[in-house]
Structure formats: structure tokens, C-alpha cells
Amino acid sequence: MTAIALPHPTGLGATAQLNAEGRLVRGILMGVACVFLTLFLFIPLLAVFHEALAKGWAACVAAIADPDALAAIRLTLTAAAIAVPLNLVFGVCAAWAVTRFEFRGKQLLITLIDLPFSVSPVIAGLIYVLLFGAQGWFGPWLQAHDIQILFAVPGIVLATIFVTVPFVARELIPLMQTQGSDEEEAAIVLGASGWQVFWHVTLPNIRWGLFYGVILCNARAMGEFGAVSVVSGHIRGLTNTLPLHVEILYNEYNFAAAFSVASLLALLALLTLALQSLVQWRLRAQTARVASESLS
Predict the structure, then answer these.
(1) What is the separation, in whole angstroms, between the first and last Cα of the chain?
(2) What is the pLDDT of residues 164-191, one digit of tens each?
(3) Around 295, how many Cα atoms within 13 Å sit in the side-chain half-sphere?
């Protein structure tokens, strides 16, 4: 039996065919992405704002200006204002340790940083109940000294810190690994102290990655529901953050107020996306600059 050789495009014909196939695949992928984003992002966001304004601007503003809603806003801002700076300091220290030093337990530290990503937020809240609850490990001692952790602001802050631990560190570690330590070593050779190296060399090089991690950390802190729900006690006007307040309003069938308050979280998400895009653009420019300098 004689084998039949099938003709195949070569030269300019092959290039044109590949370009046409590439455009077709690119168009299909872009279409799928647009449909997905429309169904699962844009339409839900539009629905939130539509329901928030269903009874008019006055009702929307009244729902946000309600004393319980204002208390939830203050508590959410307070938890974020404490959790984000602490995680910023931890993230910088952890990233510096991981990327600049070799030590026993380094891989364990990296694993522990990623732990909140793999543990359900509800489980994280239950961990604090086990530690600080009335029947927990430290519960009797806390009661004896009249210290309230659960169902109070400290418990909410602790839960928020736990779920937001990875964001800053996880943005800085790959960035600092890519940049290397040549500039820092040169500064030390020239007589700079450790603080001067950090302030004048390390920090300028990582500032956009640091800003990016802070943005993500803040967004997660303000939007956290699961862990905070377990430790808050749902005390209206006292221990309800914005997501918990939305849940209470929705369960009471006060849909207009629920969506009005939820619109604040939606606006936060849109602001986060805008800042994220800006910082990503600056990070790409910085990475390209570092790559060009390393090749030159």
C-alpha cells in the first residue's frame, strides 16, 4: 500500500493560516471572558446598585446614615486600621527574612504564611472560640481578669488579622526574589547602615508591590464575613461589621437597606480594582526596568 502524502501549507501560506487561527482563538477566548465577567461580575454589581436605589436616593442615604449602619462602618474601619498596618509590618519582615537569609524553618515559615489561604475563615473563627471562649483554653483566666476577647472588638480584630496575614508577604516575596540583593550589598559595602539600606534602597524598590499588597489586605479586611461572624456575637450596633450588618438587614427582609449598605462594599471593590490596575501597571514597568538593567 502506497502512503499518500498530504499537502501542508508552507512559507507565507502557513504564516497566514497560523495568524488566522490565532485571531480566531483569541476572539473565542475574549468572548468567553467577556461573557463570564458580564454574568458573574457586571450584572451582580448593577443589581446591587439598582436595588439600593429602588426606593430612591433618600431611602438609600437614610439606610447608610442609620446609627447601626454607622456603628458597623466605624467597626469595619477600626478593624482594618489595626489589621492592615500590623500585616504590613509582618509582611515586610517575613519577605525580607525569606528572600535575604537562609535559616532552618524557612519553608515552614512560607507554609504558615499561606495557611489562611487553605483554612476556611469559619474554622479560623472557631479556633479563637477554642482559645478565648468561656470553656476555651484561656477563657477562665480571661473571665477572672474581666477581659473580653470574643463578642467584642479584640476578637474581631484578631480574626481579621488572621485572614489577611498572607497578602502583603505574598506580594513582596516574589518581587524581592526577582530584584535580588545586589543594590543592598553595594550600599552596605559603601558604609550604609541596615536602616539606611532599608529606607533608601529596599523600600523604594518594593513600594509598588507593598502598596499592592496593602490594597488587597485592606479590601479583604473590610469584606471579611466568615471568621468575623463566628467571633462577633452579632450584637447590633456593637460587634457587627458591614458584611454582618448587611446579612441582618437581608434576613429581616429589609432589602432596600441591605443593598444600600452593600453598595458601600461594592464601591470599595470597584475602588480596589482601579487602584489594583494602577499598581499592576507600575509593577510591570518596574519589573521591565529591572530586567533591562540586569541584561545591560
Answers:
(1) 59
(2) 999 999 999 998 888 888 888 888 888 8
(3) 6
Distance from chain centroid for Cα 29: 26
Taking the whole predicted model, whether its pTM rises above 0.85 is answered as no
Cβ-based neighbour number of residue 163 at 10 Å: 26
Instruction: Tell me the mean pLDDT in the region 20-41.
Output: 84
CA 243 to chain centre: 16
- b/e map 108-135, b = 16+ CB within 10 Å: eeeeebeebeeeebeebbebbbebbbee
Q: From its phi and psi, is residue 11 left (phi > 0), alpha (psi between -120 and 50) or beta?
A: left
d(CA 163, CA 220): 8
Residue 254 and residue 49 in contact, taking contact as beta carbons nearer than 8 Å = no
Closest CA to 230 of 147, 156, 131, 154: 156
By the 8 A CB rule, do 87 and 80 touch?
Answer: no
Name the maximum alpha-carbon separation found in the chain. 94
Length reported for the chain: 296
Tell me the one-letter amino acid at 136: G
Q: Which residue has the cell 489595626?
A: 82
Rounded CA gap, 205 and 176, in Å? 8
Per residue in 94-108, pLDDT tens?
Answer: 999 999 888 888 889
Rounded CA separation 43/97 (Å)? 44
DSSP assignment of 98-119 equals HHH---TTHHHHHHHHHHHHHS
What DSSP assignment string belongs to 124-176?
Answer: HHHHHHHHHSTTSSSHHHHHHTT---TTSHHHHHHHHHHHHTHHHHHHHHHHH
